[in-house]
Fold each of these.
Amino acid sequence: MSQILVLIEHANGAVKKVSLELLTLAARHGSASAVVIGPGADNAVADLTRFGAATIYVASDAALISSVVGPKVSVLNKLLGEHSPAAVLIASTAEGKEIAGRLAVRSSSGVITDAVDIEDGLVAVQSVFGGSTIVRSAVTTGTPIITVRPNSTTPVESSGAGEVVTVSVELAANDTSAVIAEHVVEAKGGRPDLAEAATVVSGGRGVGSAEGFELVEKLADCLDAAVGASRAATDSGFYPHQYQVGQTGKTVSPQLYIALGISGAIQHRAGMQTSKTIVAVNKDAEAPIFELADFGVVGDLFNVAPQLTQEITSRKG
Amino acid sequence: MPLNIVVCVKQVPDSWAEKKLNPDDRTLDRASADPVLNELDEYGIEEALRLQEAHGGTVTILCMGPEKAGETIRKALSMGADQAVHVVDDALHGSDAVATSAALAAALKRVEFDLVILGSESTDARMSVVPAMLAERLSLPQMTFAKKVDADPDARTLTIHRQTDDGYDVVTSSLPAVVSVVEKINEPRYPSFKGIMAAKKKPVETLSLADLSLDPQTVGLAGAWSTVNAFEQRPPRQAGTVVTDDGDGGTKIADFLVTQKFL
Ligand SMILES: Cc1cc2nc3c(=O)[nH]c(=O)nc-3n(C[C@H](O)[C@H](O)[C@H](O)COP(=O)(O)OP(=O)(O)OC[C@H]3O[C@@H](n4cnc5c(N)ncnc54)[C@H](O)[C@@H]3O)c2cc1C
Ligand SMILES: Nc1ncnc2c1ncn2[C@@H]1O[C@H](COP(=O)(O)O)[C@@H](O)[C@H]1O
């Protein structure tokens, strides 16, 4: 069975859920090979094996993650040359797409981004135009390089051989020309990753202020949810920019999306329309978000949201 | 030292319109929505103009697109850019990102520049790959997803704040470099009346594939390395229940979450 390479996203060996989803997809269409780049790879081996990795390529040199994208492209390109895999799967994150794009150019391969599923024959299913259209496409030249959105598949445990193969690579000069001098963490800790969360609670302009977002966070915390925001909310400085959901922010596809004080402009919908269940609170009965909502409440979020938080807390007992 | 900057801009369907695919060749139906300057590229133009104000030099617009994209180029010039290059050729219709980056790279090889600035994403294709592909093709530092850009043309260095999931990375490189910007970086200016009038007289060079020595077979639909096999409209979401809050709105949502087994 031909190999399908999966680039693993991890922080010092802690594997992100999306990578387990990609391994599951890879195992469905071939022999799943994990590629782990950067320090901490040893910590990842057990998880990757448990989720079906037959082979685990490890390139653990810290230098591989101290420049923007280039070194990762070199590792993948080397593996492409040596093993001629049937496809390469990469998480559809901002950096994942960049890696895919450069790898496509370097290996003369076609690239498809933002797949939500992969069907027989390595046909990628994409949900485009904010989820209104479903497209099936395939790569016709080179090795198919496909980025897949988080939350597209449920990770399935199936134990793989987990054979570890060490990879070393010589970097091209341009691989290290953009040097990462410092990581600055601004995130609010303790909540699930926005793109991967099963539940997302988002606030919009209607939340009114940065202080108002405490009410959004409280609701999120009792649901173990991530917090999101509309562009109006991030532009107004109510919440940091990296939590923006929508066309120019994150695309999320959680089981449950709760929108508080968000009108539902087309560019916001583009980032959350494929959520399984949508709940909206808005004081304007005409707000377009209600066209999408499975359950909507016309009312003041400052009354409804705290009551909901309290109800959930007491029902959980 | 002055900084010479090229800003890549794309003409896209207005993001306020519902977009569709053409049934015959499965490309984006550009006629069904007003074509506009890709909103994120305005941030690239603004950043270039601010760097020019600080350091001097020229700002050149580079756009690959059909005849009609001339309007988008004028808009970019009316914001204050000096001149433009328009890559236009019928064979480019249906180009994928790989081909687009090849055409843009070929055009960039004809000009001297210190920085190429792009938007971080086009609102139609939403691939967010062209800037990285250009860095690869031109063998230049990839300084992408910048929410802050500091150039030092005398020292020939560049520092950006690259937006990440949990904050940002401080990234440094030499010049020349490829930069993409996120919308947080600045507030794009509106073209002034004077700017709009001046734009009419600014030079726009048009380049065909022949001018770029590119084989038409390698671009457009003919040269695409991926193909759309089929597409369908997703069935619209079923209308849900909407209730008015009578003091029990929160409780009603909780009841709904119980029926859906979220609680
Ligand atoms: C190219 C482009 C890209 C864009 N990308 C994005 C993107 O990625 N993400 C994004 O979100 N937007 C994006 N936008 C912006 C988008 O068009 C909207 O402007 C934005 O989504 C509006 O945010 P909002 O719903 O929070 O604000 P508004 O539209 O102002 O809506 C606020 C809502 O809150 C309600 N409200 C007010 N007070 C209360 C209260 N006390 N209780 C209950 N309800 C209340 C109001 O009735 C209103 O419906 C983009 C726009 C463009 C042009
Ligand atoms: N046809 C084009 N002409 C000029 N610039 C483009 C073109 N396509 C993409 N770009 C640039 O590349 C950026 C990212 O586009 P994309 O990778 O398609 O999401 C855009 O914001 C533009 O700056």
Note: Chain B touches chain A through 87 residues (CB under 8 Å).
Amino acid sequence: MSHGRTRITRTTVLLVALVAALTPVYWMITISLKIESDQFAYPPKWFSFTPTLQHYYDAFVTRSFAQYLLTSAIVAVVSTACALVIGTLAAYALTRFRLPYNLDRKLSLWILSTRMFPAIVTAVPLFLMMRDLRLLNTKASLIVVYTAFNLPFVVWMMRGFFAEVPRDLEEAALVDGDSRLGALVRVVLPLVSPGLAATAVFCLIVSWNEFLFALVLTQTDAAMTLPVGIAGRVTQYEIKWGVMSAAGAVAMMPILVFALAMQRYLVRGLSLGAVKG
Amino acid sequence: MGIRFQNVAKAFGDTKVVDDLSLEIADGEFVVLLGPSGCGKTTTLRMLAGLETVSSGEIYIGDQRINDVPTQQRDLAMVFQSYALYPHMSIAENIAYPLRVRKLPRDEREKRVASVAKLLEIESLLDRKPRQLSGGERQRVALARAIVREPRAYLMDEPLSNLDARLRVQMRGELKRLQHQLGTTTIYVTHDQAEAMTLASRVAVMKKGRLQQFDTPLNIYNRPANRFVAEFVGSPSMNFVEGTIDRGTFVGAEIKFPVNRSGGHVTMGIRPEHIHVLTQPQDDAIPAKVYVTELMGNETFVFLTVGPHKLIARAPADFRAEVESTVWLRLEVEKAHFFPKEKSTDYPE
């Protein structure tokens, strides 16, 4: 009987959590589909309202949200790719090569420490640097900053995954005649691919959602990312809830789809090392 | 191809793992590096493979000094204790890996994989993944991956140690046969003296980083260079009795026999098969007490006490004696070994 009771408790807790997590999302999606008078109706119209796609039209056709979406996608994908390539190589070197004076350990900690100060601290210096490099209002500036910001995360995640791969395998590959890089690509990376996938998802989410640097470093429509674009609809005179919700709903989709596609790897990646295969 | 170690040493920090090792291995030889764990045998193999750097000295393959040649250019093949099969590749891909890295055309690769698979009788496994294979099968695949190309030498690091006893003996035979067939220089690391004796054309016995003796199995067994080699090789182990040689007689507690060598403090060693256990007293026979007997099936190990000494003797399977009964021992004294007590040829403890 107690078995049935735990089950009921578990289900209840899960339901509460689910409702808490999904209500804002549901609210956002319904607002994006409501005409303005329905948005603020009291009592709130949870289910019965006349749907409209007007806000979507406003956001993506009349205004530049399509442009922001494209910018966000380019910045997120390119910076994630850069962070993965650089971070994976760095992590591999840091796990596999012993440097004198324990430098490999010290370097790893140093890399981690760059995550320890608040991002806002770097905002002004970065703005000045980007201005001097004439990179303000470019996608390149965001790509560079996001790559740098994701790197410590990638290095530390991948270090853990690489440490799980038995050295024998790489040594076997080397004796079999492969180069270091060849062994990494053909033997090690396939084995840590679930970890790589999990890391990629997190990097992508961080880059996709990033607001602070995008706000500081970009002001033009051509370089603006979606989060900044959405926030820009809060103006002195009005708040475009419908447009913002429509853009928000669309902004959510790519990450959702990507995370679902990677779900299989995500679970394996995050629990990699917990169970020896 | 021939392999030469010349005064090779390896130190990790202040710890000397291999010390002043010189070995000359002829082309086509099967050399076993034998020693207890921590004796430097695996490090020696890894230095040859290029997986460890050499602290000092030189290693040659043929006439080429390979100290600074990267692993992948040394053209060796290695079988790891863990087999190190690539888990995400099929067996066929595993075996073909060294060929793929060398950019052999696909049809040539397939042909060679098929012929090696046939040689090792693993044709039916080619489409499987390593995790679907038993230990013995994995071992064969690791061997197949090593012999699929023609390397300058095979390096094997305790390749049989993860197999059960029966399979180990079987694979031992097959390995010997295979090496005979291929005729490629093989360096084999093990701590199992039976493997060393059965496989090797010559055995290099190591202890604490130092080479103790490098000779044929028969000479290692019959003419051990020092007490360590004598004790390590042979099962059950050689018996040792401390004593002195005085005016042509070896004198240990309760054991005394004439010898033809000069005097001093010595350790006398005698193998269990050179002690004959008699149930009746005989001239010159040494009285002893039976401590316990172990019937092995084809023979009996008799554990004995002679004064302060504990000795082991081999007796026929039908030998019977009660515990604590008195028996008499006849030693084949001409087969006895004498080691200086100072152990001057040995590495200091």
Note: The radius of gyration of chain B is 24 Å.
